Amino acid sequence: MDEQDDKKIAADQTPLGRKVGLSELRKLKARKRAVQNIWSGFTVIGLVGWSVAIPTLLGIIIGVWLDNHYLGERSWTLMLLVIGLALGCLNAWRWIMEENRNMHKEDETDE
Predict the structure, then answer these.
(1) Which residues contact 70 (CB under 8 A, 6 or more apart)?
(2) How many structural domains is the chain composed of?
(3) Is the Cβ–Cβ distance between 25 and 5 less than 8 Å?
(4) Which domain range does residue 45 map to?
């Protein structure tokens, strides 16, 4: 909580008033955080989706081009699809871990 909030609550000397004030401040902060968490959740879902889709699609496009220009026994498309998918999943995992660290930092600073 902010020092201003503590001063506002401290101005009310009764124990019941202080308890009610602290409770109200927690509720207001929780409401604000809930709206932010919803939007940040959508953002993370979008980032994770695109971070997997883009490398996978690039792998497919490059693989098809290589298959059309360099014939061989192996399928470049399939190989690069798997490589793109793996890179995309690693990228998504990195984004999720970063968001998780940021959420824990925010929780620690609020306390």
Answers:
(1) 76
(2) 1
(3) yes
(4) 3-110
